[in-house]
């Protein structure tokens, strides 16, 4: 994943820097059809293949489920809007989904400090 730092004193410039950062940050997306539903699995790139363990919870961020295309955060959010079921894990994707009002902040769980959220539209 790309890491970029921006320091601006002008509020308008700071807003544009946020937009640039959104288009440069990448996540994995794996889009599948399941009957009438579109299922999207998305994760922050650095989490792919990791296993999060906390108490009795074992959360495996498997490549076969999450790995698909690497896309910008902006593209991933658009796919979230179009999908029936979304499974997302990672600070970047979950925080952006919250900012875009796709996920309520109280609906996320954290496993080893990593946010995870799901969206289900029926």
Q: Which fold name fills CATH's third level, the topology? A: uncharacterized conserved protein from methanopyrus kandleri fold like
Strand % is: 35-45%
**Average pLDDT over all residues:** 86
Which radius of gyration do the C-alpha atoms yield? Answer: 15 Å
The outline comes out as: globular
The side-by-side strand order for the widest beta sheet comes to 5-1-2-6-8-7
Question: From the helix content, strand content and strand pairing, which structural class follows?
Answer: alpha+beta
Summary, kept brief:
The chain has 122 residues and is α+β, with helices and mostly antiparallel strands. It has helices spanning 11-24, 63-66, 73-82, 91-99, and strands at residues 26-34, 37-44, 51-54, 57-60, 69-72, 85-89, 109-111, 114-120.
Structure description:
The protein has helices spanning 11-24, 63-66, 73-82, 91-99; strands at residues 26-34, 37-44, 51-54, 57-60, 69-72, 85-89, 109-111, 114-120. Helix 3 packs across helix 4. It is of the alpha+beta class and 122 residues long. Residues 1-18 have low confidence and may be disordered. 30% of the residues lie in helices and 36% in strands.
